[in-house]
Amino acid sequence: MNFRTNLQLKPERNQIDYDSKILLFGSCFSENISKKLAYFKFNTGSNPFGILFNPIAIERLITNAINLKEYTESDIFQLNERWHCFDAHSDISAIEKNELLLNLNNEISTTHKQLSEASHIVITLGTAWVYRFIENDTIVGNCHKVPQKKFLKELLSTQEITASLDNISTLIKSINSNVTIIFTVSPVRHLSDGFVENAQSKAHLLTAIHEITDIKNQLYYFPSFEIMLDDLRDYRFYAKDMIHPNEIAVDYIWEQFKKAWINENTALVMKDVETVQKGLAHKPFNPASKQHQQFLNNLKLKKNKLFEHYQIQF
């Protein structure tokens, strides 16, 4: 008897290899995948403005990066002795005003370059619920603990999300016509919005993504949401908060991502990279022993081989 409903993913076109340049935007799930890619030494960048959960915030970042917007004092504000920007996560906030502006503008410049050169862009949407700052009628990427009375909470319609994702795709393709864009929905439930409200939000995101996915135009969908909720669907795969996927779940979804998006030859190279990574993390009992010196020499040979063939640096 089969006690699981296992998703069977097929290899996609335009798969990732060690010549690929990968850029990720969106929720904390993007961070999880980015860490995996970085561990295996792929050329990857992630969330230049920190974690962003809603499509409007991601669209604004991409729009500003493509247009090389220059952030000024009018775009930031001070609260609780720190300077913040509504377009960015609080991780980007700074004590000094000029430091924040410098960081924002440096990231805009870097992201513009990455968008124009990327072979693959992964966009993870977390929620369709957004907060509109009443003072300037603008949807924010992060509220930075500004009093809630200064915002209106709204649920983006399917049509609004579809339009935003279409804008994102069109903007990126305007400077990088050959890029492959992979959309996914975060499996993390936003239960602070409410159980029913979270389900409605995810439904809007899923519907909108499927409205715009088009293999001919290199716009794809990866089912991380379905893998978590329909394949794993057991609380043993959740962290202590019973909301976020635990390490086992992240590893499993990563394996599914590999099946779909990383070609077989590259997967073999990844095994060699992992061998070196584990070797670098090894803590010897006796660093001066001949055995350990031989181990280090073998590790060096493996590193040199990976650099020679794939320009992989450790």
TrEMBL record:
<dbReference type="InterPro" id="IPR014982">
    <property type="entry name" value="GSCFA"/>
</dbReference>
<dbReference type="GO" id="GO:0016787">
    <property type="term" value="F:hydrolase activity"/>
</dbReference>
<keyword id="KW-0378">Hydrolase</keyword>
<dbReference type="Pfam" id="PF08885">
    <property type="entry name" value="GSCFA"/>
</dbReference>
<feature type="domain" description="GSCFA">
    <location>
        <begin position="21"/>
        <end position="257"/>
    </location>
</feature>
<protein>
    <submittedName>
        <fullName>GSCFA domain-containing protein</fullName>
        <ecNumber>3.1.-.-</ecNumber>
    </submittedName>
</protein>
